[in-house]
Write a structure and sequence with these properties.
heterodimer, A: alpha+beta, eight-stranded antiparallel β-barrel, 2 helices, B: mainly beta, Porin, 2 domains, twelve-stranded antiparallel beta barrel, two-stranded antiparallel ribbon, about 10% helix
């Protein structure tokens, strides 16, 4: 009799274990990822407009809780003029010292997003931006689109250069805007660790 | 056996908890370490010349670098010559980026009324990430033509007698952000030399470098050691120290050198300034880059 009880308990435990295993593996697949998100910035100043694009951007979204993170390789920004690129890295963002810019935050109203069916949502993101060694709290409006197996995240926001301790010398003050416009687009697919 | 299941359960629960805490930035870091993008070294030097000699840097595709170079007279001229400022020699030059790895250049020096043309080819870039390459390597090949009135009555004025050639391999490494060092094995051939006892071929090793003082300013130095054998005409090893000042579109290079000539056959093989006798020249190079065609931003 006692022997039988143990057997049922063992079976229950095994079932539970199996369930936990499934939950944990389910947990893994709750992340969406890309290694080539698209980040652009635009600076509009009296003497010159500056535009740059970067595809060396990784992004991950945790669809369990709406947490989202970006990592931007600073040397990945490409400009219309080669000298701009050199000066951007060498003089402004100092990418030898600060090779990456990162953002880690949360989509605030993520609970309204239903990832099981196609749709577009206006969302608000809050988090910490780290650029040029300076951490700063920020928020931005964005759009989240569910399209089949993909989640597309996009946003456009302004950044004040001075907030990140990037100095603009007087000689080029009419060539670089104080506030630059940043736009990002990321097409995320289910993350599988491999 | 009885204990096995609960332990497994506990392990799974704790592993699960760890997953939840696992921060997303850590995951991104891990992913980029797994698949590193090539990371090229930029701006080993600020200009295509360290001082007199070529650096590994070349002008980018579709860009035109306009170079104005001046060397004043000998500092040894004293107050009467305002320490050389009363005289000056000049070189104008243009160099154009056909590709990001190939430049064509052209210049005219007032010194010996010389035209020069050259090709510069960057074939290795210092990088890390996907591949590790410790140095940037550029090949340089030039031809110079002097157009002075022929003053050697006993020699025929052949066009070929006015030519000289220089070939260099420029090997540079940027250490950290501030320090760059370059070796420049050089070979100069003059079709005609001053006396029959002078050698037509001169081998030399250039050593140059810079230290950045600020992001926009550096101190540079270079030396060309001549390996040549016996020459009747006394020449010195070319040396120079200078400061690079970058102001956005311009790079200003202020310098002191013992060489009056600003092109390779002259400073490598024909430097006449004796620094012990005031044979030092103050000078500057101004580099101004014009973008002829912008890169597309998609």
């Amino acid at each position: 009799m006692g022997h039988k009880t143990t057997k049922t308990m063992n079976r229950k435990i095994r079932l539970l274990t199996l369930a936990m295993l499934m939950i944990s593996s389910f947990g893994w697949s709750q992340k969406y990822f890309t290694r080539n998100a698209d980040v652009k910035f635009f600076s509009e100043a009296p003497a010159e407009n500056i535009e740059a694009q970067n595809r060396q951007v990784t992004c991950v979204l945790n669809t369990e809780n709406g947490e989202i993170a970006f990592s931007v390789q600073m040397k990945g920004f490409h400009f219309e003029k080669a000298l701009m690129e050199e000066h951007f890295n060498e003089n402004y963002v100092e990418s030898h010292k600060y090779p990456k810019a990162t953002f880690a935050g949360k989509i605030m109203d993520f609970n309204k997003v239903d990832i099981s069916k196609n749709g577009t949502y206006k969302v608000k993101v809050e988090g910490t931006m780290t650029l040029h060694g300076v951490e700063k709290q920020m928020d931005a409006d964005g759009e989240l689109t569910i399209k089949g197996e993909e989640i597309i995240v996009s946003s456009k926001f302004d950044m004040k250069i001075a907030d990140y301790n990037i100095a603009i010398p007087n000689a080029v003050v009419d060539k670089i805007a104080e506030v630059i416009e940043v736009s990002l687009d990321a097409t995320l697919t289910k993350y599988t660790k491999n | 056996m009885k204990l096995f299941a609960p332990i497994l359960l506990l392990t799974l629960v704790s592993v699960n908890a760890a997953f939840a805490q696992d921060d997303l930035l850590g995951l991104l870091e891990e992913e980029s370490n797994k698949n590193p993008e090539p990371e090229y070294t930029y701006a080993t030097f600020k200009a295509p010349r360290i001082i007199n000699g070529q650096s590994v840097e070349i002008t980018s595709k579709n860009e035109l670098n306009f170079v104005i170079q001046h060397r004043f007279g000998e500092v040894g001229g004293g107050a009467y010559e305002l320490w050389g400022l009363d005289q000056s020699t000049i070189r104008f030059g243009l160099e154009y980026g056909i590709f990001n790895w190939l430049n064509i250049g052209f210049g005219r020096s007032s010194y010996k009324k010389t035209y020069d043309g050259y090709l510069k080819l960057k074939f290795l870039r210092q990088q890390r990430g996907k591949h590790t390459v410790p140095v940037t390597v550029t090949a340089f090949s030039s031809m110079a033509l002097t157009t002075l009135k022929w003053d050697q009555p006993d020699l025929p004025d052949y066009f070929s007698n006015r030519l000289s050639f220089t070939n260099q391999l420029l090997i540079a490494r940027k250490f950290g952000n501030a320090v760059s060092v370059q070796l420049s094995p050089s070979f100069v051939h003059r079709n005609l030399v001053e006396t029959p006892q002078d050698q037509n071929d001169v081998f030399a090793l250039g050593v140059g470098g810079r230290v950045k003082i600020t992001n926009r300013m550096s101190v540079n130095a270079e030396y060309f050691y001549q390996f040549d054998g016996y020459n009747k005409t006394v020449t010195f090893d070319a040396m120079a120290i200078g400061i690079d000042l970058e102001t956005g579109g311009h790079v200003f290079q202020f310098l002191l050198t013992n060489s009056k000539g600003m092109i390779d056959p002259y400073f490598i093989a024909d430097t006449t300034g004796d620094i012990t006798k005031g044979g030092i020249f103050l000078g500057f190079n101004i580099n101004r880059v014009f973008t002829l065609k912008k890169e597309e931003i998609k």
